Amino acid sequence: MSAAPARRTTDLAARGEPSTWLLGGALALGCTMILGFLLLVAWNGIVTFWPRQVEVVTLSSGQVVAGEPFRGEDYRPPAAQVEALPPAHRARIAAAFGFASRTLYRTGNFDIYNEDFRWVSDFEVARAEAPAGLFFVERLEWGPFIGRIASVDLAGEVLPGDRLDRARLDAAHAAARARWTRIREIEHGAIGEVNHRTEQDRLRLRRAVLAHGEESPRTAAIRGEVESRAAALRRDYEALAAEAQRLKAEDARHRITLAEIGGREKTIRLSEVVRFYAANELGLAGKLGVYLSRWKEFLVDSPREANTEGGVLPAIFGTAAMTLLMVIVVAPFGVITALYLREYARQGRLVSIVRISVNNLAGVPSIVYGVFGLGFFAYILGGSIDRMFFPERLPSPTFGTGGLLWASLTLALLTVPVVIVATEEALAAVPRSMREGSLACGASKWQTIRYIVLPRAMPGIMTGLILAMARGAGEVAPLMLVGVVKLAPELPVDGFFPYVHLERSFMHLGFHIFDVGFQSRNSEAGKPMVFVTTLLLIALIAGMNATAIVVRNRLKRRFAGSQF
How far apart are CA 106 and CA 100, in angstroms? Predict the structure, then answer.
């Protein structure tokens, strides 16, 4: 009778429950780590543009520091510094096992202080306050300025800072920024168009010289056309340059003088001020307005201050364009290769070797693809294209250097193994009976593949494309060799024929993160931009993947009822 309970006793190891717990715990740990990373990026990215108060800290030495509290930490001060402190401070540090607290203040005013940030230890602080009248001024150059407005010069009328009419200053600042925008439109838009036409005429004449000779009648006729157009272009250029000069002269008459907390002054043009606000006098509505205006600038403007400030519109455009072009290239090649290997090729040793090679390609470091793309696409293929179609531009390369097209093809090579493997698995999942039924009804092999196999394998193919898109959009190492740059002067799309210029270099959000985080003059100044750009890159990839997932799910529902 006592043997029955013993037989009912189940061995946990035999049931596999410890392994189940271990696997479940590993899954929970992985999900927690991913969620924690996303929350860290999201929180730091979301609060980056929220305006903070400006504190004025008076040190025990009498020195005054003004800045935004950036972050704090505990550290171990040097022994000599501790010995010089009053007994009460030494006792507190000793009670904390030799550690003290300090705060990093964003002081700005780099053109005056030669630094953007300063550490202030808590035991150095005699008094800290947040007085009114302090402004946080965002400038086109030299980063932010923290201090007071000493005076404003509006075309000869000097307004003192202590009796400043904010409504009038805001109106003058808006007019100054409008002038600055118009100057940029003239210099980068209208004058840029004139320069483009002049360059096209020069290349046309050089092409004629290379094709027909210097003294040929054809060359002489083209030279006459170019010279006649050159006079009109010169007149257009002079008129635009005169207008720009007039606006600059008017702009120079509107200036603002800023004073830092110690009294040193800095005078700049009013148009060089991007944004300014009284940091300690903003209400919730004012802070929200500054926050939203910073986000707008980030999404629609170009970078400034070594990419640590301003916007990332060129990087957003470059990332999206490169990813979409990569998908357009990788989808047909990956699907066609998988179709041949699964549906047409005779299964044997050679096909097995090809499959093994494809799987091994997925493990090749991405920088190797970058070296291959630079050597084959840019130097060999691009150099050949330049010699055949753009000889008049040589020795300046057109396609013979890194660009959007070669970067997309390089990443297509990097991600095509993922698409091939996923497509093969999706094709193999289509029941054989469906193929046999189609063939028995008189359909050809291609008709069977096109109307029966491919539609039902499309969800799996879309999964492979989603994985390829996610990996390609986040790659940086190969792009550093085949086209990505720190700052692209022109977008790959403009108003000049052929309107889409795949040979141009471009900006990328992933490289922007690397550049700001590790190549900027001040890592602390670049850290907020790293978080917010990372958040944007994750959101961009998630948006593109979500679109592909919606398409995949619709395909699944479409064929869910026809599986047998």
Answer: 20
